[in-house]
Amino acid sequence: MPAARSTPVPALPAPPAPVAPAPGVAPGGRRRRRRPANLGVYLLLVPAAIPVLVGLGYPLARQFVISFQEYGLAQQFGRPAEWVGLDNYVTLLTDPYVWGVIARSVAFCLVNAALTMTLGMALAVLMRSVGRAARLTLQVGMLLAWGTPVLATTTVWQWLFDSQYGVINWLLAEPLGVTGMRYHSWLIEPASFYLVATVIVVWMSVPFVVFTVYAGLLQVPGETMEAAQLDGASGRQRFWLITIPMIKPVLFVVALLQVIWDLRVFTQIHVLQRAGAPTRETHLLGTYIYSLAKEFSMAGAMATIMLVLTLALTWFYIRRMLREEEM
Hints:
Blueprint: H1 39-66, E1 69-70, H2 73-76, E2 82-83, H3 87-93, H4 96-129, H5 132-147, H6 150-160, H7 167-173, H8 190-217, H9 222-230, H10 235-246, H11 248-263, H12 267-274, H13 279-282, H14 285-291, H15 296-326
Antiparallel strand pairs: 1-2
Transmembrane segments: 39-61, 97-126, 138-160, 191-218, 239-261, 296-318
Subcellular location: Cell membrane
Organism: Actinotalea soli
């Protein structure tokens, strides 16, 4: 019998490669449900959350309610407060002087925060580069400048800039020979007033930035820097392309705190105003709210506006930090 010829079997097509499900989607196409967090984790936060809510939440809520009322000294002695709605906010936001105070406060805040961050980062890099003795000297000096009370520091700087007996005027007039500076009054003109205030605020804020950024610089691996140096990266390239990205979370937090602190600065401005400066031309948000102390409702409305402005200025930093935490 002749042998039966075998019919070739056609090759089957290869099965398609499995497609990886999208993040958060189950293989069957169904959306994965996030596992609920352990309730015990939230219960551990209760002892810390209660004092915060009582100490910060209640005054904030009370301030917000008062801002919608007519609340003054009479209401402190029992007279019922009259509900006026948005009248206090309309009165403030339609006053050109209030917008001038807001503009000065924002400009003062941004300039001081930028100067503080720049000087603080420079000193932190210097502290890491110098020897042990120089680094210890810098640290002690920073601690002394940071640990001195605000009122004492402001008073000392006020003496240094005094028009008759100040060291600054003497240095400018005698050794440097600048004409007209022997009895120059720094606090009369708003521009020179804010210059003095900037010196004081930056002087007291730089140490915090220095120590925080220095701690972040210590966390940069030395092996990474050595590998970049072997690959031919210059010192500037290693700093901007390796060091700065690694300490970026620290810089974001420090910048956020500086913006908040510099926007609500009060003591330095108030002390300099009492030393003879024109009050109306040198008000910032903190001192202007203090000047409204007899009108509790107006002060509460202005404080609420300041809170909204603070959140608006810091929203960029907060969003960036939240985005980096989710990654």
